[in-house]
Amino acid sequence: MTEKEMLQKNVEEFSRLQNYMLLSDKNSEAYRVMKDRYIELKIILTASGINLTELDKIKE
Fold first, then answer.
1. DSSP string spanning 29-57?
2. How far apart are CA 4 and CA 35, in angstroms?
3. Closest among 52, 31, 29 to 41, alpha carbons compared
4. Taking the mean position of all CA atoms in its chain, how far away is CA 11?
């Protein structure tokens, strides 16, 4: 997988994950697990030079 394909995959997963988080109860175990992945993806994308200003719907 090329770097471009990996970045695209991570951006798509980040977007999809945020949609799931917005539909979930913030006090649920599922939300806490999703938040861990959200933070991981946010770090990966930021380190890859992706500006999350427009992509980040959760902003936590």
1. HHHHHHHHHHHHHHHHHHHTT---TTT-S
2. 25
3. 52
4. 7
Cβ atoms 6, 47 nearer than 8 A: no
Tokens at 17, concatenated: 């994950």
Residue 60 has pLDDT above 80, yes or no: no
Q: What's residue 2's pLDDT? A: 95
pLDDT tens-digit profile of 4-31? 999 999 999 999 999 999 999 999 999 9
As given in the structure block, the two tokens for residue 54 are 């427009």
Burial of 29 (0-12, 13-18, 19+ CB in 10 A): exposed
Q: What is the pLDDT of residues 21-57, one digit of tens each?
A: 999 999 999 999 999 999 999 999 999 999 999 999 9
